[in-house]
Amino acid sequence: MTKEFAGKHVVVMGGSRGIGRSIALGFAAGGAAVSICARTPGPLEATRREIEAHGVTAHAAALDLAQAEAIQAYVPQAVAALGGLDILVNNASGFGHSDDEAGWEASLGIDMMAVVRGSHAAIPHLKPGSSIVNISSISGLRASARSAPYGAVKAAVMHYTASQAKMLARQGIRVNCVAPGSIEFPGGTWEERRTSNPDLYNSTLATIPFGRMGRPEEIAQVVLFLASDKASWVTGQSIVVDGGQLVGP
């Protein structure tokens, strides 16, 4: 991979594992200085060391992304540690599935409001040519009896992405969204369901024409494209990356 992100400064909200980790490592491999945040210190520090191994500046902070004050404090710290900010990736998720107060609080507090708060904190530091990429889900594109709050909020993230793009265009800031399908990785939801709920795992697998779950790096590559100069005329878009899961086998 060429160092197309050399001299760039990237913040990945929710960057310690899975998709967020792959995004952070992709930018680091491209030469960018990267800051990540998440709740759990152990995986966060492990990923920070992986970023640093690419020979770039690596910064990490443990925080609860449901807390507005934590985000407001973190973003300026990350900007100071990196020496600037060119790209923001809003990846964090509370995975609120149950249609009750707890499920809605988890989804709204992190999947939605962390995107809003992270963007608000970052925008004053972004210059013309900068980019925001939000991570949604194909769950936002179809009804679900199993995870109504998660799907509804992910749909809102796609709508907000388009609104952000319109609001920030005059400042020269592009905003796009990636909507992944089912992604499997160590310690992730689908790895756990492979054994805890094999019926759900296998029925979901059967909807994917390629016959396998996606990999985090396959999402990361699309995020990197949208944040790169190759996508300089792309804004306000939500790109589905699901191996054809929405269209079926």
TrEMBL record:
CDD domains: SDR_c. It comes from the Bacteria. SUPFAM superfamilies: NAD(P)-binding Rossmann-fold domains. One of its GO terms (molecular function) is oxidoreductase activity. Residues 8-193 form the Ketoreductase domain. It is an enzyme of class 1 (oxidoreductase). Keywords: Oxidoreductase. Its EC number is 1.1.1.-. PANTHER family: BLL7886 PROTEIN, SHORT-CHAIN DEHYDROGENASES/REDUCTASES FAMILY MEMBER. Belongs to the short-chain dehydrogenases/reductases (SDR) family. This is SDR family NAD(P)-dependent oxidoreductase. It comes from Bosea massiliensis. The lineage of its organism: Bacteria, Pseudomonadati, Pseudomonadota, Alphaproteobacteria, Hyphomicrobiales.
